[in-house]
Amino acid sequence: MASVKDNLELKLIRSTSLAKNLELKDLTPAQLEVVNHRTSQLLVLGQAGSGKTSTLIAAIANRIAAGEDPNKILALTYGRQSASKLRDQIASANPTAHTVAEPIARTFHSIAFMILNDPINLESSADKKYVLLSGAEQDAQIRQLLELDAANPAQSNWPQDLIPALTTKGFAKELREFIGRATERGSSPAELSKFAKKYDQKYWPAICQFWERYQNAMALRDATTTHSFNRVDPSEIVVLAVDKLESNQRLLQKYQKLFQIIYVDEFQESDRAQRKLLQLLSGPELVIFADPDSAVGRFRGADPDNLISDLEQFGIKKKITLDKRLRPVASQQVALLSSASEEANFIAHQFRSAHLTSKMPWSQMAVIVRSPGPQITALQRAFAMNSIPVEIDAQAASLGDNPAIKPIITVAQIALGQLKITSSNWDEIELLLKSEFAGADAISIRQMRISLSKEQKGDLTKSSTELILDALTAPTADLPWEQLQPLKRINDLLKEVKKVSSRSKDISDLLWSIWSSAKNYEGELISTNWQQQALAGGNRGAIADQNLDALITLFEVARRFSERLPGAKAGLFIDQLISEKILSDSISASAQRGEVVQVMTVHSAKGLQWRYVALAGMQEGSWPNLKQRGSLLGSERLVEIFRHGISNPAQLDAISASGLAEDERRLLNVATTRATEKLIITAVSQEDNQPSRYFEKFAPDEIEITQTARAITQPALVADLRRLASRASNKEEVIFAQRMLKTLAVNGVQRAEPKNWVGHSPISTDLPVIKSDEVLRISPSSLESFTECSLKWLLEQSGGKDADSTAQVLGTAIHVIAAQLLEQPSLSLDQLEDKLKGAWSLIDMNKGWIKDYEYRRAAAMLEKFYSWNLKNKNTLVGVEEKFEFKLGNAVVSGSIDRIELTAENKYYIVDLKTGATAISYDKALGNKQLQSYQLAVVNDGFKEKLEHQQVAGAELVFVGDHKAKDAKPRPQDAVMVDEVTAELTQISQGMSDKSFVATINDRCRTCAVKSSCPIQTQGQAVIGK
Q: For position 308, what pLDDT does the model report?
């Protein structure tokens, strides 16, 4: 079957400015030996920074310069970006010949895909072209089959304990990953069934049965579809190509002849199937570059442990080691910050300072993170505020995670029926309400809750959450819409979007209807507002620019989806956007906007280098990340079985845990070798979020919290001048500042104009935050927080509080396990630890339970608590008991960890603390949280009524200090009822007031809202004083 493509030669023309050439005279003797090597297979080993990739480029350029046909040279690497970059570098390596023929650089998957769609192969495949299944398509099919199993559990083979999990996204994702890992290794349901029996794996027989049904369902869809395609899972593409080459000599000979010279970069990232494919394709002219210590793809199936033994099967006898490190060793700067926002601001300041003072190009700076998380949003915000252009890698933050895009996706999900407006989905809907598309905040949501609850009619009462959700789609509301403006905006938007979706099924039409109809809290079209902000410039303009870039990318991705899958449902696109990693800034990437700071994960940074690199977020529990991947179904055990052939489950788990620790060590090695001039290493120190052991390797023994400097931006300059003008004791300095401000204002700097300053205009309202006829609901912990700093309390109540960290989740698990001693007081420490292990797996279902450091940390806490409990003479009578009592015009509500009875038959309150630092004995005596717990007893505020209201005191028990061998109790005397009630009533009145005072205290250094505080440097920059 002939094809025009066989005779088509493409020419690329590259600018010589792209080339960073290695002259032969600059090469080391070992590099020169590699460049000049011919006629036999060669293995090149070298550490990070030894010049492996540069040598590969020089070797291929040398062959082309010597007259060898570039069409017969194949360069293989890992990842599309790496292949594209390698292709450009090779193409521009020879400054005297600007034209290089294609193809020249590919990934293993792209070569396999080329082989599958080769005309010779299609002759035996009924001429049906191969197309890749997207992750969303696979997920949709898997979830559809799992829903059938969940509806008819008797007809399926799933164990009973898995039935409740079948309909969850996490289970479907883990099942797809398990099947993918097995497929990559050329396994089958029949082989897996044998493994299940041999290795006594509980869940694998059910997976085998499901896998067969999945394969049959996909085959049936291919046979009945209107488009004549062979749909192939990306995980099986290399295995399938190997099978086709082995069974078709004509096909094999074609590719052996086509690629007579093969160079492979980063070969340590290869798996067994890729090595088999290379073995089939290669002849004597094969050069492999590898560094087993830099493998970062083990979780995807890379097999660095067996690299050397597998290469011996190739028959490679010649080996050259590049033992000289060519990349300069970067200087190191280590900084410990008080919050994620402070960390992001610190990095932004370092980068902007380098750019302004040292003329450092933005493209020569990068931030590397271990994995996606809240710090990405903090970095985006900090970089935008400091006018730093940034490109976020898809692995760090995908398009679906972009804050500007997420509200659009949520509205689309609601309109399509993918996201039900129910209480179980409140977290996602609350994010929508707090977005610019609705304009609500924590205070307005609370006000709407109270108002809607008061207006309820009839006997059937609903929760305030249900009332808010009803209003999102109701034609009318119990209150005037003026009081429910955020809900009204979403209500109107959904009506408009549903009209469009009823007329058109095209995803682009649906997205455009959302974008063009959405309004902000001032009633302006967001589409118009963002464009105006972008044109106006400044910090808000920079953020609007980023938002518009993301939006353009969204519509471009939607267009490509419609072209690839004509007639596909819009819901499939939404699933694909959420489940797959799509670059959030791909427009700038495709346009080659080079002058940006890149933010990416360690895996994406492999093979790249910059002059300045910041390693951000070296926190315990995340870097290193020692959580077992796929541990519910055992995909990591399956991989180790293929690698080692071991049958002992305990041995398999030990190997898996050891391999995971080794993977993390390799990732750290990769991350720390990306910089050529300066390596910045940062972490955050908070009560429940501490730096990791990796950070401690670089930090000095006594490291203090780093104070971030003022941003080097126009707003910061204006703030400095305003401070100087208002506070300087020297009259000449005051005059200088005033003149500078006037000069800036005359030249169009709006911030320098006094009429635009905070405080120049009258305050919008002086009314209290809580009206006199409204009920303020407060928690005991907030009473303590308010006494420390009332402004911090207000800002945190209004949405300024950080999300739960891993350490906070760990603390929750400890509380759950400790509570079980009420029902089962005879439980041993070993039994409690078993329960802890099980509870932790349920808390973090998608990623499995912690088997290493974090689990040991949790077990240590539990052991301290258990030892304290053994010595405790009181009788436990209640755990997690809920209470509520009136305090002036407020209602105090919460739950108490432990209620005990003393020998004198009085109640004693115990509150378990898992934070790392215990408070002093003096502070415990006046602790407002414990005092409110005691008042709950005195006021008979418990749902489950106590026998009497006599209280003997209370106690905080700290178990989180890893340096302490025992728990640290901090007792409090019996409460002075009248005195404490009066004091707490006064505090509750202050919470309802109109003024909130910022107070310096011990927690200022770790305060999450420091950047909004007028007595902190960062806050003064914000408000301009």
A: 72
